[in-house]
Amino acid sequence: MILLRVWASARWWRELAFVLSGAVLRLPTLALALLGIAACGLSVVIFGLALLAGLLALARRTPAYFRAPARKLLGRDWPDAQPTSRNPLTDSTAWRALAYCFAGSLLIYAGGYFTVFLLGSGSAALAYPAWWFVEAGDHSWAGTWLVAGEGLLLLLAAPWFVRLVVFADGLLVRGLLQPSKAARRIAQLEAGRAALQADAAALLRRVERDLHDGTQARLVTLGVQLARIEHKTDEPGVRALAADSRHTVTEALAELRDIVRGMHPPALDDGLEIALSSLAARSAVPAEVRVILAGRPPDATASAVYFTVAELLTNVARHAHATRVSITLTDTPTRLTLTVRDNGQGGAAVADSPGPAGSGLAGLARRASALDGEFRVDSPAGGPTIVTMTLPREY
User: Fold this and answer.
1) Which of 62, 208, 273, 382 is most enclosed, with most CB atoms within 10 A?
2) What is 283-327 written as a DSSP string?
3) Where do the structural domains in the chain lie, given as residue ranges?
4) Domain spanning 266-392 has what CATH number?
5) At what angle do helices 92-126 and 27-41 cross, to 10 degrees?
6) 128, 144 contact by CB (below 8 A)
7) Which PANTHER family does UniProt cross-reference here (predicted)?
8) N- to C-terminal Cα distance for the chain?
9) Claim: this prediction has a pTM higher than 0.90
């Protein structure tokens, strides 16, 4: 009854399928781990380093491969660990994944071998009395039942052994594939910050629409009414007062438009390429734009790029004495890179940039840092000046 109860458990059959199927599914990852060990020995030569970097980059993708059968058979799931470096050779996440490819595969193969041994030997021993009855063996009739009892123990031990293998594999997963508690907390904070940035961008756009469609429209109407009063009245005092009020409304409209453009430039609604091209067209220094993107960046990223280019073009016109500017925006699977280059006199530096917080090169560096990006200025005396901003690619 105990044997039937254990073997009737659905959990046992799922764990058995996980271990036995792993003996087949982990052949590629074991080969990857063995190649990685060999590449470590060859890392003293350039070819070995290149091979090791490629293997580590490939190992970085294996957690999803391991997760599929674990989710299907065991209901086990885990988030991907974030890479700690863009260089595979210094990425601890890739090294841990490669270590799991080796240790986890050895565990599954050892567990699969002994599981088959327990099941095969136990089944054969349990059926030994029937064999003895057909073919008289060396044991007595009572001895055959002793062998059958040993077989029963082996079959009873098999599910617990498989469970031990699965438990050990879970420990390896938690230690090598899953992100640490600190990493999970960082990921939660980053997700929360991204949500706040998206909410802030949406709020700014909503305020911009309200100002444009509501306040600005009322000011335009007020200006028109004041102009009518100015032209219809015959009293000089009233006409002067209406004209002065109309000029005040016009100035308020101009300030309001500047505020609206500072919140969310309307040009961004048509995409970054058009927005940057419009900035280049208005630039005092001839500028060319090259944009190659795989998708449309989030509003926060697009605004950061737009305002960075606008600020840099203003700096070039005021201080660089340049005759040409090039703006290049490209992306990779993980990063978005903006490069602005001018042929001016050079000498620009983040620490020396004037202006209040949020303006100048220092403000641009803080804006990039707030988005987990980097901002670099390469501006030797005599030029050229190359400003590079990299931001995480989140699309």
Assistant:
1) 62
2) -SS-EEEEEE-SSPPPHHHHHHHHHHHHHHHHHIIIII--S-EEE
3) 2-179, 184-263, 266-392
4) 3.30.565.10
5) 130
6) yes
7) NITRATE/NITRITE SENSOR PROTEIN NARX-RELATED, NITRATE_NITRITE SENSOR PROTEIN NARQ
8) 57
9) no
